[in-house]
């Protein structure tokens, strides 16, 4: 046995498959099982597994790609079920009329509640969505005139397609899994496209996503709403399968099942939703012979899966049978823009307070095309806060941030990024699960029409910084100097008029700093204006043409770099005697 495992591990890296091969083989196995082996009861279990697979595919969008733990997904499932149940059993509507309504009602509710709850972070969002689910459940139980109350509504008609009443068994399983295939294909294409890449970046680093021109709120709301459509569709199919609707479709075990399917199958993967649903719906049946002990074995099997395959079953299969890497694109320069001249950015009287602390107090500066301005000061002087105010991560209490004649103060980060301002961060944040090329291409998702185009432009930015050989490497594990270079390439890929760099030389060796200085000098030759926050005076002063020093949020010095070391106020507040 052990020898066989070793042989499999040794052979696995040589077995590369097309990216669609796993999904194709999975569907082929399901079709073969349904046609050749499944009993009538087995077909019923397979049909229910298809219902949960469709719900889990939707959950993969909001949870797997978007990173939002929505506990209202089960409520959307139940709302879709009740829409079909009420209209079908009480009003006599057919499938062609009830199914669209079961998609529309959860969608409208998701849009209504999504605007406020998506502003909440992590566990607060999860608790808010759980509250929504509980309210919906209470309404269903306490509205007997509409929902049948605790007893529910019997007599829901089956599916009728083009005059054909779909019988139970293989035909019904085929219809349900046809919807799974259609929904899976749509979700798969979305996940692999620009929208899916953008949503993944929002999950990994929402701050960086906004400064790269991505509408974080809009992407989250779209994912939340789309997941509700999938849940509503699954709920409708569940009711047509069971021919009765009751408050059970709104209870928390439905939500737990969908969440478990997503985690066990593989977070963010359509194939994971399908594999997880088939496995979790069939595992209890396989262990029924254990009678009262089957739930214990079932729980142990799930726990073992999570421990041994933390990235889900699809992640385990990817490690054993890796897919063929996509061919690397050829570098392509983005469309040329006119070289700017004159003043590009004017900051006038910017102020910001946090409680009783005035972090930025009446700061003004001007950045001209093709120049480097240094921003210095002791820790806590307001440097990073000023950069956050300019880039939109913080809203000022007063003052203006002017690009031309447009005041950007208080605008969303994505709108400021689209106006021509890019930035890097003091602590470099790159998506650990992505390649360097994908991380840099994220900067072009808002502008380019396809992933291939974005990656070609990203490779151009990497070449410009002498880092094209890093394109295929994962971001995880890159040393500090290379991480900073990749982040700079990501900012450059946006072709900004103004580039804000927050301590770009931190943690670099002298040789790496000299190389970075050369890159920055090359960048300003294209007309870009740089604002560089830095503590290393040996790196910054020979580079900058103008220096602004802050202390306790107020300007202490503004002038040429030659005057920094001799200014008594700067020496006393920041540099210290003897510098």
From TrEMBL:
Transmembrane region(s): 20-39, 51-79, 91-118, 124-141, 172-191, 212-238, 258-283, 295-317
Membrane-related topology note: Multi-pass membrane protein
Pfam families xref list: ABC_tran, BCA_ABC_TP_C, BPD_transp_2
Sorted UniProt keywords: ATP-binding, Cell membrane, Membrane, Nucleotide-binding, Transmembrane, Transmembrane helix
Cell compartment(s), UniProt: Cell membrane
InterPro entries in the cross-refs: AAA+_ATPase, ABC_transp_permease, ABC_transporter-like_ATP-bd, BCA_ABC_TP_C, LivM-like, P-loop_NTPase
GO function terms (MF aspect): ATP binding
Domain ABC transporter intervals: 345-577
PANTHER family: HIGH-AFFINITY BRANCHED-CHAIN AMINO ACID TRANSPORT SYSTEM PERMEASE (PTHR30482), HIGH-AFFINITY BRANCHED-CHAIN AMINO ACID TRANSPORT SYSTEM PERMEASE PROTEIN LIVM (PTHR30482:SF20)
UniProt name for this protein: ATP-binding cassette domain-containing protein
Source species: Azospirillum himalayense
